[in-house]
């Protein structure tokens, strides 16, 4: 049977209290999706509300020199316009069915997935079932308040990366987001690491938890997930 991955996108479309649009970030979906597709994965895509998951329009311009991301945007709209409601995969159903879960970044996740109890329960279920839990850029926001049985934070004691404070400052969003992801990970006991320079790729694998720092890390996260799943199945 083909390996299966559940991709989770944000349903949040506004940047804090501003009228600025936000959502998920194009290359952070397009590159891992392409990796999973090339590896023969069965892919399901979900969001808290289901239906259309909002694409951050600025990510299209960000990808102006990224031919594969632009091709994905042109040809794969059904991927994010017809997402399943995340609750469909609750109560162990997703953890039983899938080999991995992947949380796409973009600023949206810090506003909805970070505090979504359904998402938190599903992430914990995947981890407890021995499946791969992965995220990129702001996607790790979905994991920061996830607790596993016994009350310990899922990320506690683990080496983790995410969009850095420096990068958040460079995009001018430090006063808009509800928390800085680098700080939050450190506060809950995660061992935060980052690339030597802002915007450089950084992928961190700690057991079955895979995280990437920024858009440049998205493809690497997908590749790390595929490698871990293959190792588990002895391939």
Give a description of the structure:
With 235 residues, the protein is of the alpha/beta class. The protein has one domain: Rossmann fold (3-Layer(aba) Sandwich). The chain contains ten helices and nine strands.
Number of domains: 1
Shape-level CATH architecture = 3-Layer(aba) Sandwich
User: Structural class per helix/strand content?
Assistant: alpha/beta
Number of helices: 10
Widest beta sheet: strand line-up: 3-2-1-4-5-9-8
InterPro entries: Class_I_gatase-like, DJ-1/PfpI, Prot/Nucl_acid_deglycase
Protein name: D-lactate dehydratase
EC number: 4.2.1.130
Family: Belongs to the peptidase C56 family. HSP31-like subfamily.
Main attributes of the structure:
235 residues; alpha/beta; seven-stranded mixed sheet; two-stranded parallel ribbon; 34% helix; 14% strand
Topology:
Elements: E1 4-8, H1 26-38, E2 42-47, H2 58-62, H3 67-75, H4 77-81, E3 84-85, H5 93-97, E4 100-103, H6 108-111, H7 117-128, E5 132-136, E6 159-160, H8 165-170, H9 181-187, E7 191-192, E8 203-206, E9 209-212, H10 218-232
Parallel strand pairs: 1-2, 1-4, 2-3, 4-5, 5-9, 6-7
Antiparallel strand pairs: 8-9
Family: Belongs to the peptidase C56 family. HSP31-like subfamily.
GO molecular function: glyoxalase III activity
EC number: 4.2.1.130
Offer a quick outline of the entry.
It catalyses: methylglyoxal + H2O = (R)-lactate + H(+). The chain has 235 residues and is α/β, with parallel strands linked by helices. The chain has helices spanning 26-38, 58-62, 67-75, 77-81, 93-97, 108-111, 117-128, 165-170, 181-187, 218-232; strands at residues 4-8, 42-47, 84-85, 100-103, 132-136, 159-160, 191-192, 203-206, 209-212.
